[in-house]
Specification:
The structure is a single chain. The chain has 278 residues and is α+β, with helices and mostly antiparallel strands. It is 45% helix and 12% strand. A five-stranded antiparallel β-sheet has the order 2-1-5-4-3. The termini are far apart.
């Protein structure tokens, strides 16, 4: 690990970004160029103290997960992301594998979506980044680790807690859709990938999953219209639009409702109140 190179790179990249580049408000008069350390820490969901120690060459070797979060926060290109990993003492990530890295162009679009719930997911239904509106509507995904990050895994491993966001009449369709998308992901990534690990874990614990997996359905798409169930506001009808990356490894999902509808009012209420209980 080259602490000096890592610290210098983080500092320069931070100085090159403005709050508007990452969807933040400029706020009061700023004394230093670029983003503040606390803003980078906020974007990367880490403590300001931890990030500060990295810039001051005092921190421990950051994990690949921390580096992925920093690459998103600093809007690094693929080449810059690879350099960040190398100076931190790791090989560059495999660009063909499932990764937490989100391209800057996708993040710029997400930064400009404040009113509508929006988030970026991987082929394994892992939420990589989400805006405040999505966090308020669907919950904060940043604390999830391991296989629990996959919405496919949680749907079958923890049905009692995960399926409440959908109408019971929609559970069977959602189960089929998730299994079909997992088979598509395993076909892309291979049986030794994280997709294969999810298949093995769910095969051991969910008869429902086994039955659907044996059906050999393959499909990766998002329903254009769905009904979500909010714990306080009840049913919310939303339209779902998906913007895929060129290699279709990630998708930006945006949820909207018809203007003037009851659902639109509920989405606005959720956005304004955030994660507070209504």
């Amino acid at each position: 690990m080259d602490r000096e190179a890592l610290a210098e790179f983080l500092l320069r990249r931070r100085e090159m970004l403005q709050p508007s580049d990452v969807g933040l408000s400029p706020g009061v008069r700023r004394r230093t160029p670029g983003l503040r350390r606390e803003e980078v820490a906020q974007l990367a969901t880490m403590s300001t103290d931890y990030y500060t120690r990295l810039e001051q060459q005092r921190g421990p070797q950051p994990s690949p997960q921390i580096l992925a979060a920093l690459a998103r926060a600093l809007r690094l290109t693929s080449d810059e992301r690879d350099y960040l990993h190398r100076v931190a003492g790791y090989s560059a990530p495999d660009r063909g594998a499932v990764t937490d890295y989100v391209r800057p162009g996708m993040l710029r679009i997400l930064d400009r979506l404040h009113d509508a719930p929006a988030f970026v997911v991987s082929v394994l239904d892992e939420v990589l980044v989400q805006n405040d509106a999505a966090r308020a509507l669907l919950g904060d995904a940043s604390h999830l680790v391991g296989l629990e990050r996959s919405g496919i895994y949680r749907w079958f491993a923890h049905p009692e807690s995960e399926r409440g966001r959908y109408l019971e009449s929609d559970h069977a369709r959602q189960s089929r859709s998730l299994v079909a998308s997992l088979r598509a992901a395993q076909g892309l990534l291979g049986s030794r990938s994280r997709a294969g690990e999810i298949v093995r874990e769910l095969t051991a614990r969910s008869p429902e999953f086994v039955e659907l997996w044996d059906a050999q359905e393959v499909r990766r798409r998002f329903e254009e219209h769905k009904v979500l169930v909010h714990p306080e506001l009840g049913e919310i009808e939303v339209d779902c639009q998906a913007l895929f990356t060129e290699d279709e490894s990630q998708a930006l999902i945006v949820l909207t409702a018809a203007p003037g509808s009851e659902a639109a009012s509920k989405l606005e209420l959720v956005r304004v109140l955030g994660t507070q209980v209504v």
